[in-house]
Here is the input.
Amino acid sequence: MKTIRLAHLYPKLLNIYGDGGNIITLKKRCEWRGINIKIDEINISDSIGEHDIYFIGGGQDLQQIEVSVELQKHKDFLTNERERGAVFLGICGGYQLMGHYYQPHNGDRLKGISLLDAYTVAGDRRFIGNVTVETERGTLVGFENHSGLTYLQGETKPLGKVITGNGNNGNDKTEGARYKNVFGTYLHGSFLPKNIKFADYILELALGEKLEPLEDTIENMTHDSLVNKAY
Here is the structure.
């Protein structure tokens, strides 16, 4: 039986806005196909071994401070995992910490681990509402709730173009980021249950092969009902 190893990074600190639903989605879509998935929760002071997928969710600034410090201990290892082809998905605060840094309004700059060539600074306005994004792999939908403004550089490219909502910074009409198999996004709600094709894409990258389709009528109806939903 095929097995996927998934590391859920710091769920006790970064797990708001329904981010745990992303883990449930990956788990169920594996189980429905007869694929074994082993999920390890990695918390503060835990070691990290090799995994196929790494997930890190969102949190408040206070929790991000603690996680930022902890991640520095694993920066070299996680960078090597990126180069090995492991898949990363970061949501909101986790997305910010996969870049170079997050600079709050007040307080010290929070170091990221530079898996993405990106940086985030606190903005004066909070972006809250529905988001629709057009990508090369289809339409993504979700709910954003952030004041951080994220800017991409170099070979790190956006996931797509914002149709509804604000996305990375409210100015350049981009949302999310990708470099190699590292993905970041501001889409909550949870992200993957609303975007099952993207969930399957992550699993395919982790497995290195195409998946058999599932009967997704309800899931697709849910996704379609949110496309271009008023902000």
